[in-house]
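Alcohol dehydrogenase, class IV
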Amino acid sequence: MIWESKMPINEVREIRCKTTVFFGVGAIKKIFDICADLKNRGIDKVVVVTGKGAYEKTGAWKHVVEAFNAHGIQYVLYNKVTPNPTTDQVDEATKLGKELGARAVIGIGGGSAIDAAKSVAILLEYHDKNCRDLYEFKFTPSKAVPIIAINLTHGTGTEADRFAVVSIPEKEYKPAIAYDCIYPLYSIDDPSLMTMLPRNQTLYVSVDAMNHIIEAATTKTTNPFSILLAKEAFRLITKYLPQALMHPEDLTARYYLLYASLIAGISFDNGLLHFTHALEHPLSAVKPDLAHGLGLGMLLPAVIKQIYPVCSEVLADVLSPIAPDLLGVPGEAEYAAEAMENWLRQMGLVEKLTDLGFSENDIDKLTDLALTTPGLDILLSVAPIPATREVIKEIYKDSL
């Protein structure tokens, strides 16, 4: 593998894999063991953070309530988290948790609910702070109450990483935070909870995972572990996503998409992210109804086109399931981008930014947001090519 010769072996880099994840069909039943452990830790009051309905429709809530009752755990439920959760929602959930005296947080849902739960866990330890303080980096947290993540999608990997994303609506900011104190203590990844995902959501969350690994494998801070996980995650997504789209209740397909999402989360927990996420956050900050994975998918081919010349060896290896004839040379950038776009189109992601109401008139504003939103500067700083204003504008323009 040509990329191995390019790995800077004299640079010391972190390798992370910290959360205990209960993985597999039926894993939701492990909530009983988790509640027993919480009780042993002296925790008998929790706040549950979730969205408006999936926590019940999937059947997850039934198991959680039974486990609470079996172990004498009191709880308060906050079920108003929306896609692209807001600082106000986190503050509301935190208030409920503080009123109860909660000493742990359980997030049930996809990335939105779990990221909101992580944010609540921090704020339960900092009584003089609010969520805007947290996401505008007005303080640096070093502690959070224990977090339990019950995952309902196969996309974010947030159940096994130290990241969270919450929007500040009035500023059209969608910042990302990353702190060791918000690794979940335990997570549940049960594919049987995901068979009801609608077709579009199945596609978008899988595209999210795909972006995680393409970015993580190509940052300035990547390591061989990130690249190893990226290759396997990409192989699994391209193999099992078509099956899940055609047969939503196929547990084998859901199992491997969920596994791909999990290891993609660990991949970018190690390698970090760069252009696609840094440039998507402004899109869904301006248009909160925009699905995160859809935004990422619209940007991905343009990002590959920009970065391929300096990451050709790694990307040729990772993208080989959809473009086996890539040689790993810089001149293939256009071809690699087209291969990615063609695959996305085959899966059903055909939209461009203009289809979502964006135009050339929006590019300067989006570029400003990418460059000024708190936290996104960290992602842009590890991009494989300089994240100049011109490069960012070119990616947006190519994605119209």
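thats it. Residues 292-318 form the longest helix (27 residues). The beta strands are 20-23, 45-50, 74-78, 105-109, 147-151, 163-165, 176-178, 186-189. bye
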